[in-house]
Amino acid sequence: MVPSRSLPRLFAVTRPHSAAELTALLSYTDPQQPLAWIRGERGCVGIGEVLRLEFQGEDRFAEAAEAWRNLSLSATVDDPVQLPGSGLIAFGTFAFDDRSSALSLLIVPRTVVSVHDGQAWVTEISTEPPAAEPALPVALSTGEWLGTTLETNVPDEAYLSGVHGATELIERGKLEKIVMARRVIGAMRSSDDLRVPLARLAERYTDCWTYAVDGMIGASPETLVRQTGGLITARVLAGTRGRRADHDADLRERDELLGNAKEQHEHAFAVQSVVTALAPHVAELQTSEQPFALRLPNVWHLATDLEAVPSDGGSSLELTAALHPTAAVAGTPTREAIAAISELEPFDRERYAGAIGWIDAAGDGEWVIALRGAQLGDPAGEERSITAYAGGGIVAGSDPQHELRETVSKFRPIAEALAP
After folding, report:
1. Phi, psi angle pair for 370, to nearest 5°
2. Which terminal CB of the chain, N or C, has fewer other CB atoms within 10 Å?
3. pLDDT digits over 401-418, tens only?
């Protein structure tokens, strides 16, 4: 826990700015350590670092929420823009498992450049009263990108063994669903400009959140929770089919997904876990009547949207704590599924399938599940490590080879983004 007395007083000044355009947004952030949050026609990037708060263990979300509340209460915020993400803001990334060795972080940038619904602004954050008005940072030209090839379409006996073990537990009635993940290890040059793969993800996956926080990068299709302007929304994804180049074959994949009893069953688990977790914190909770097929460039997903009104005054980070982990990334029952994952997966997921996003001084924010991405090591020396992850839900009747092929489809966004 971070003691309140050790937290600095922060000053945040936001001013509208006409020069910041989304097409150039990534040019303002650090090429090797970018902070970014982009989707479609809006987004924000961070430059520099005023404060970094670290958390670990089962209380990481609660400690982060309390620390952020204390910071926000003591902060001086000058924000005439009053839009989501203006004023004081922190980017965050949280580990999947309570026992993970990975640090969970809140990072307060020195400068934030943002675009929302055609409006742009710049925020300066400091530990001293500002001496000048916020200025648009200098845009940096795109650097060199040699990239790397991730070998995702290879035999993975450890993953197949894990799927076999998961199906045995399900057949014995121990669990209804377990989400099994696999990982691929690679390396890239430390000097490569990470804004190149981020731009590829943002341009290709416009229905996803392209994110970059402390070397965790990717494009997530699954909104864990969004709380802005007195409204809470979430999107649940569970059930997947790979896309096909042939139009008719692609539509058959979509229709098979929509009509598949196993996938519908898996999806219902995931939706119910979110509804159950949100219910104590919201009013007027509504969901789409039936799952719909979400079309992404690499896969079809079964999707359900949820909408509610907050009822207990909690922040978006506290809602995130209540929701994580969902059945979509853990299983059902959740506690037992996480225990099984720790036995069946031969690695620490670290921040994969954890929460990643941002929060502002009002407690509003957007958090997604860290999917379709990779964790990059620190850019020290000539090489930088890459650990990419993908997974899928295992239920009764799951076929290990099919599940392996599904992970290949899910690796595709980050593999293509990191390619030379």
Report:
1. -75, 85
2. C
3. 999 999 999 999 999 999
Cα separations (Å) of 212 from 44, 70, 201, 216, 414? 11, 25, 11, 5, 12
Lookup result for tokens 């704590």: 321
Q: Which residues contact 175 (CB under 8 A, 6 or more apart)?
A: 166, 169, 331, 332, 333, 336, 337, 340
- Amino acid (one-letter) located at 257: L
Q: How many CB atoms lie within 10 A of CB 147?
A: 17
Q: Give the pLDDT confidence of 25-42 residue by residue, as tens digits.
A: 999 999 999 999 999 878
If you search the block for the tokens 């690679």, which residue do you land on? 186
Task: Set out the domains of the chain in order of their start, with CATH numbers.
Answer: 4-137+145-418 (3.60.120.10)
Q: What pLDDT digit, counting tens, does each position of 122-169 carry?
A: 999 999 999 889 999 999 999 999 999 999 988 899 999 999 999 999
Contacting residues for 121 by C-beta, under 8 A, at least 6 apart: 14, 15, 16, 17, 20, 81, 83, 86, 113, 114
Token pair listed for 386: 């890459």
**Strands, E assignment, 221-313:** 223-228, 231-242, 282-287, 292-295, 299-310
Token readout for 26 is 């990534």
The Cα–Cα gap between 227 and 273 comes to 19
This model's pTM is above 0.70: yes
35 dihedral zone (left: phi>0; alpha: psi -120 to 50; beta):
beta
Strand 282-287 with 383-394, pairing: unpaired
Are the CB atoms for 247 and 349 separated by under 8 Å? no
Q: Give the count of alpha carbons within 13 A of 282, CB side only.
A: 28
Report d(CA 417, CA 420) in Å as an integer. 9
- pLDDT at residue 351 is higher than 60: yes
Interhelix angle 195-204/400-418, rounded to 10 degrees, is 120
Give the residue numbers annotated as catalytic, written as ranges.
Answer: 177, 222
